[in-house]
Amino acid sequence: MKPVNVGIVGLGTVGTGTFNVLNRNREDIARRAGREIVVTHVGARRDNGFATPGAKVSRDIFAVVNDPEVDIVVELIGGTTVARDLVMKAIENGKHVVTANKALIAQYGNEVFAAAQKKGVNVAFEAAVAGGIPIIKAIREGLAANRIAWVAGIINGTGNFILTEMRDKGRDFNDVLKEAQALGYAEADPTFDVEGIDAAHKLTILASIAFGIPLQFEKAFTEGITKIGRDDVAYAEELGYRVKHLGVARRTANGVELRVHPTLIPEARLIANVHGVMNAVMVMSDAVGPTFYSGRGAGSEPTASAVVADVIDVARVLTTDPTNRVPHLAFQADSLSDLPILPIEEVETAYYLRMDVKDHPGVLAKIASVLSEGAINIEAIIQKDQADETAPVPLIMLTRKVQEKKMNAALDKIRKLDVLVNDITRIRVEALSQ
Fold first, then answer.
1. Which of 17, 261, 278, 400 reaches 20 to 30 Å from 133, CA-CA?
2. Torsion sign across C-alpha atoms 300, 302, 303, 306
3. Which residue from 252, 244, 269 is spatially nearest to 207, judged by alpha carbons?
4. Has this prediction a pTM greater than 0.85?
5. Which of 202, 227, 406, 416 is catalytic?
């Protein structure tokens, strides 16, 4: 049988890993795919000295998608400008596409998939979420019999590394961030990682395949970890929780929650014990209940593992009727739901609140009164006495579930009481039990 010819565009960390895995495991891959898979063309604008034996190298990356001999284009350049043009051109030329580009899929996936369906080609994107963890295949195919209630994930390794170091070593956020940059976990501009944008791209994709809704990245709520202090991490431990930067997509009667933010998780949960740069995703579905997936969320060969798995999948279905392939977003394109994405004000969660208050009589009573008036129940309180009577007193509270807009209103009233020394730190709490 004729080999499947692959063109790789982008020869950075993931591109070189993909080339290596395809060549090193060539025999096993051929046995799995039913035919040989060969890299015949590589597009790389700069020469990084990486050898690509047997493959033509073009500095014009569009030469790869215009090569009539290439069957599958693997896009690994990242970004949403040139990459978008390249993927759309590949589809226009009738080529299948494999990509690790979460931003492209989250922001332009609806357009990309519509074009692919029209041309009868596949766009595979397993590596776009959680690196080497096969979470997209698990939800889209392994859990296809289930109605999924929610998906929650630690899907950015940089943020998880920072919070792990803060917990284990009592370090400050800025100190750990500098180390993460030195180790190559965080970019010089770490905004995408620490502010939750990278995780929101990935969560948008997970929500779409879990609930059969169009990709709607612009409606995802994102909150970063830059305001989390080491004291918050320590107080959470004292209360039996861990702080994680969590992405949550939940189906409710009123719509879909789509949110990324720091979260207190009970320390007994498996996902609360995922540390360092590791990623993890929990899925709650009706037939099987909770399932858990963990592994390396980034890196050359972990991500290449997912890229090559997609290449094999595409190679297997090259000759099948396009209407009989697994849909891009798990549900048939004409059956996607119009469930709305809920604004964060409509979301209901429990809360961790930390307030540095003046050491005056009656302060706790005043704050408790405001929360009570707002129908907000207090689950637990920690009040730390200070040796210095002029120093502010840390007051930590856990509340029961309440709608975010009610909590916002109560916090605004507390700010007007003239009892606070600093602004209130608020972290949402997720039990992840049902």
1. 261
2. positive
3. 252
4. yes
5. 202
CATH 3.50.50.60 is held by the domain 348-429: no
Tell me the C-alpha distance between 86 and 98, whole Å: 12
50 SS3 class: coil
**Whole-number pLDDT of residue 323:** 81
**202 flagged as catalytic:** yes
Tell me the CATH number for domain 4-132+300-335. Answer: 3.40.50.720
Q: Which CATH class is domain 135-295?
A: alpha beta
How far apart are alpha carbons 103 and 81 in whole angstroms? Answer: 10
DSSP letters spanning 196-251: SHHHHHHHHHHHHHHHT----GGG-EE--STT--HHHHHHHHHTTEEEEEEEEEEE
Q: How many CB atoms lie within 10 A of CB 7?
A: 27
Q: Does the structure show a pLDDT above 80 at 390? A: no
pLDDT digits (tens, 9 = 90+) for 48-95: 889 899 999 999 999 999 999 999 999 999 999 999 999 999 999 999
